[in-house]
Amino acid sequence: MSLLFRNLRIHQIFGANTDVGKTVLTSALVRASAANGHIVHYLKPVSTGPLSDADDERILVLAGKHRDRVHSKCLFRFDDPVSPHLAARRANEGEVVQRVVPTDDAFVNAVASYVRSCAQKVTAPSHMYVETAGGVHSPTLSGTTQLDSYRPLFFPTVLIGDSRLGGISSTIASYEAMLLRGYIVDAILLFRDEYYRNWEYLSPYFAERGVPVMSVQPPPERHSDPTKDGALTESYYQDIVPPTGDSPIFEVAKHLNECHTRRIAELDSMPRRTLDSIWWPFVQHGHVNGEADVNIIDSAWGDFFSIYNGNRTLPAPTLSPAASPATSRPSSLLEPQLDGSASWWTQALGHAHPSLAQAAARAAGRYGHVMFPEASHLPALQLAERLIQNGPGKGWASRAFFSDDGSTGMEVAIKMALRAFSVREAGGKLGGSRRKDLGILGLKGSYHGDTIGAMDACEDAGVYTCEWHDAKGYWFDPPTVSIRKGKTVVSLPPAIAAETEDGKVDVETVSLSWTYNVEERLESSLADTYRTYIERTLQKLKDNRGLKIAALILEPIVMGAGGMIFVDPLFQRVLIDVVRGTPSSSATSEWSGLPIIFDEVFVGFYRLGFPTTHPLLGTTPDISVHAKILTGGLVPLAVTLASDSIYRTFLSDDKADALLHGHSYTAYPVGCEVARETLEIVDKLAVSGAWSEAREKWKVPQTQAEPTATSEAAVWSFWDPEFVNVVSHMDHIAEVMALGTLLSIKIKDDAAGYQSHSARALLESIRTAVPTGSDSLSPAPVGSPFGINYRTLGNVAYFMLSLNTPPSVVRAVEERVWRVLQDNKR
User: Which Gene3D superfamilies match (predicted)?
Assistant: First the structure.
């Protein structure tokens, strides 16, 4: 991620357009820094055109008498004076042996590697300027726009404004494009054109936004006589960078120094300020040991945070006898850290995805937020249609109700289900205390959010409760699926195991894929056992008149917060069939038995490798709830989908019969537009080569370019099956499971459960970035060693990827996890 050094102040120079004087003004900054006694490093990552016009050579000339303090470098040079992506392509066309055009990662790593080499050399405060080519959106070698290509570096920037006709517009547009990608713009510098006088307009405009604008006189026209041209140029630089140190250029240099100092000081102060003011969720503050426990995130990009390590230095790599100290990497104040929990399961496409940021800006600029009752807007309407017609509601849902997050979405679902049940149960007249007696049916270990109603739909024994928690219902202890010693095992609760022929608690199955082939298993003896057990339990509940079960709520396939519990899908399917009183294959459009709610907040939209859990279970719900991946992790939004029979329950002439539930930000246009963009991108990923390769490793049949209904229901993971197998054989590992983006590792621990600290203690060292000790770069942004931010649920450690995490990152994480587990055998 971003590189930040105490003794090397780095600024990247972008131009609002081509020919705006970027090199002239960068040269002035280089000269001012050198005149103030600093060593200056100038980097031109890409240069196009003849060597005689190369900026990296010209910088040295323009440094004048301070040249001995200036070091200049160009990384990729092309003779053709055109856009870098075109110059690279044309260079290949003329070569017998084709040169490989660097990928964005390789390009950024090359820049980062040079920056690190410069940082290693400085001992006193020094400066560095990284000058881009053309305007902010000029392509780099791969064709990616510069703003996106350079974004992993996240250097603070100076924008060279356009002083010409139309320059006000291009300067503001460039600034806004930079903000949209999270760049820090420390200053704007431009020529002082006396005719167009753009600086007069731009100075107060950017002052309101906290960005200073400095202007200087433009350079003289180039003279045909090289000697006279050199004299005129030197005279010009003497004027704008005078020996007295009194000019706008020196003011800019001073301001950039202050920005650098202020940024580090703020990062230094953030741990203490956080401990003094923040109350964290799901954290026992009594266990926080001080500032060292505060993870300061300076920025995020892709799958990685860029975290501040303060005065902590990275451990030095182990060098071979032939290696020199120069091969070790200097310690940046920032280091990459993998977002190992996908930021609480929300990330789908990595952090700061430019397309999602643009979608948010699109809706924010057009709508902001607008009232939704008896109204509509395109983002909400198009998203609702997408979810109903070609999403998780396809074939069964008729309505979409928008809310804020998964917990509130579940509150809506519970209200829908209980009303539907009460209307059918008593013709709409189930009132008074009887309505207070309604409860839900669910599974032990379930979690549906932290609002009161969602908590009441979970068992008393759960940890996510409060003093008002009043568990209302009954929760089955479910059978679970895991991989142990390379074998797929279904673990039965004692009550169910006692009803099988052999009484075994652990039942080894044919394979993982067979275990999730619910349709094939429906005729098995285990299915009969499940059915008998469920029917008898429900009959006992029915005989108990104290509580009336009014709805079934399931987290399909995996119960996340309860401990990454992989429920036997056969049990969930049989439970649904029994509750409905009819096989799912013959279900009508009307709900039967009990309304069934699927809480797919965690598992939906390919989190587990399939778009929805319905094909795998072979059935659909009456109500389902979706959030998290829905918006790619950028903004909060939830949607509750309902069948027409549920919707009709609320229709009458009485206003009191309406679904009187809502949120100030219902159908938030920004969230809806981001969700639409997210789903478009995810649809493309689902048919990508990377997904096909991952499926092939898990032996999922791929007979078509797009996933078939069969392959959508087949289980697979981005985690390598051999890695899962190896970990499952470790003596101190109880079990492992992997589906889609999720990897779950359960540690053997007598004190198992949420109160256990075994998983956290075992993997603690994984948070620290560890150099490889070789010349190979890590797959993290800018090639730096990276740590892993992970979450645990008692004795369960889990890791979660985005849907577009590069395979190289996945393999590196697997290697790191394996090594830590191997080094901590007990």
Answer: P-loop containing nucleotide triphosphate hydrolases (3.40.50.300), Type I PLP-dependent aspartate aminotransferase-like (Major domain) (3.40.640.10)
- Read off the amino acid at residue 580: R
Burial 45-65 (b: 16+ CB within 10 A, else e): bbbbbeeeebbbebbbebbbe
Q: Which whole number is the average pLDDT over 168-177?
A: 98
pLDDT at 409: 97
CA–CA separation, 624 and 621 (whole Å): 6
Rg, the chain, Cα only? 31
Instruction: Write the pLDDT tens digit of every residue in 340-378.
Output: 999 999 999 999 999 999 999 999 999 999 999 999 999
- Convert the pLDDT of each residue in 149-168 to its tens digit: 999 999 999 999 999 999 99
Cα dihedral 163, 164, 170, 171 in deg (nearest 10) = 0
Phi first, then psi, for residue 55 (nearest 5°) are: -65, -35
Q: What is the pLDDT of residues 93-112, one digit of tens each?
A: 766 555 678 899 999 999 99
CA distance 493 to 504: 10
Q: Give the three-class secondary structure for 424.
A: helix
Amino acid at site 526: L
Q: Which residues pair with 558 in a beta bridge?
A: 566
How does DSSP classify residue 677? H
∠ Cα 71 74 77 (to 5°): 155
The span from the CA of 263 to the CA of 254, in Å, is 14
pLDDT band, residue 424 (cuts 50/70/90)? confident
Give DSSP secondary structure letters for 480-503: EEEEETTEEEEEPPHHHHTTSSS-
For residues 735-765, one letter each, b for 16 or more C-beta atoms within 10 angstroms of the residue's C-beta and e for the rest, the string is bbbbbbbbbbbbbebeebebebebbbebbee
Identify any residues that bridge with 747 across adjacent strands, giving them in sequence order.
733
Yes or no: say if 814 and 719 are a contact pair by the CB < 8 Å rule.
yes
The yes-or-no verdict on residue 430 having pLDDT over 60 is: no
Q: What does DSSP say about strands 796-800 and 791-793: parallel, antiparallel, or unpaired?
A: antiparallel
Question: How many other CB atoms are there within 10 angstroms of residue 39's CB atom?
Answer: 21
pLDDT of residue 328: 44
Q: How far apart are CA 601 and CA 454, in angstroms?
A: 13
806 vs 226, residue with greater confidence = 806
Residue 64 predicted with pLDDT over 50: yes
- Does the pLDDT value for residue 2 go beyond 90? no
**Closest to 798 (Cα-Cα) out of 564, 626, 584, 578:** 564
Opening angle at CA 442, ends 650 and 456, nearest 5: 70
3-class DSSP state of 405: coil
Could you tell me how far CA 725 lies from the centroid of its own chain?
27
Residues 6 or more apart whose CB falls under 8 angstroms from that of 750 comprise: none
- The Cα–Cα gap between 755 and 753 comes to 6
**Model confidence band, residue 50 (pLDDT cutoffs 50, 70, 90):** confident
**DSSP bridge pairs for 14:** 159
**Band (587; pLDDT cuts 50, 70, 90):** very low
Strand, coil or helix: 798: strand
Spatial neighbors of 742 by CB under 8 A, at least 6 apart, are 558, 564, 607, 608, 717, 798, 799, 800
704 phi/psi in degrees, rounded to 5: -135, 165
SS3 content of the chain, % helix, strand, coil (to 5): 40, 20, 40
Domains of the chain: 8-266 (3.40.50.300), 396-479+519-684 (3.40.640.10)
Residue 393's nearest CA partner among 714, 643, 710 is: 643
| Whole-number Å distance between alpha carbons of 634 and 182 | 13
Half-sphere exposure (Cβ direction) of 453: Cα atoms closer than 13 Å: 17
What token pair was written down for 580? Answer: 């409905």
pLDDT (tens digit, 9 = 90+) per residue, 105-134? 999 999 999 999 999 999 999 999 999 999
- Mean per-residue pLDDT over the chain, rounded: 90
613-to-391, 421, 504, 738 alpha-carbon distances in Å: 12, 24, 28, 15
Coil, strand or helix at 145: strand
